[in-house]
Design goal:
By secondary structure, the chain is an all-alpha fold. It has a single domain (2-162), classed as Tetratricopeptide repeat domain (Serine Threonine Protein Phosphatase 5, Tetratricopeptide repeat, Alpha Horseshoe), CATH 1.25.40. It has 9 helices and no strands. The chain has helices spanning 2-9, 21-46, 50-63, 68-80, 84-97, 102-115, 118-131, 137-152, 155-162. The longest helix has 26 residues, at 21-46. The radius of gyration is 17 Å and the shape is elongated.
């Protein structure tokens, strides 16, 4: 449910409609297709059918590879299947598109933890916390993870990370 809340909470896509009515109709049709893929993929994630969700996310990226949120959702689907390296790549792509894509930092952090790269997990989670609003419900959980990970490092490493 945490992953689903992060995924659904970040869904923001804006389309600009320009000059002619045909372009408006094309844009509306395109938006309907995008929405259909997105909603179908979310439904698969809710049902824990992550491989099917991945297929939908990839179809959506074929339509528009520059939607950061779709890369994040793909990353969380890959994460759920234990494909951490591919998930890391998806989260990084999302951040390349939008450096303020908060849920990408969170996903990146939990993937790095799974791969055993605690220092990278700490860095990504600190970025998530730093960029988040104070009342974000995931900040508390992020701080708890950060505390846990920092306790796993030798004290000298933690001091160096703070500097």
């Amino acid at each position: 449910m945490l992953v689903l809340a992060i995924v659904a909470g970040g869904w923001l896509i804006n389309y600009f409609i320009s000059k002619s009515q045909s372009q408006v109709n094309t844009s509306q049709n395109h938006q309907q297709i995008v929405d259909q893929y997105f909603n179908t993929a979310l439904a698969f994630m809710q049902k824990k059918q992550y491989q099917s969700a991945i297929h939908q996310w990839q179809q959506l990226l074929a339509l528009n590879p520059e939607i950061a949120e779709v890369h994040v959702n793909l990353g969380f689907s890959l994460y759920e299947l234990g494909k951490y390296k591919a998930a890391i790549d998806s989260f990084n792509k999302a951040m390349d598109i939008n450096s303020y894509q908060l849920n990408a930092y969170y996903g990146l952090a939990i993937c790095y933890e799974k791969t055993g790269d605690i220092k990278a997990a700490i860095g990504a989670m600190r970025s998530f916390i730093h960029l988040s609003e104070k009342d974000d419900p995931f900040v508390r959980k992020a701080k708890a993870a950060l505390w846990e990970w920092e306790s796993q490092l030798p004290k000298a490493d933690v001091k160096n990370q703070i500097k």
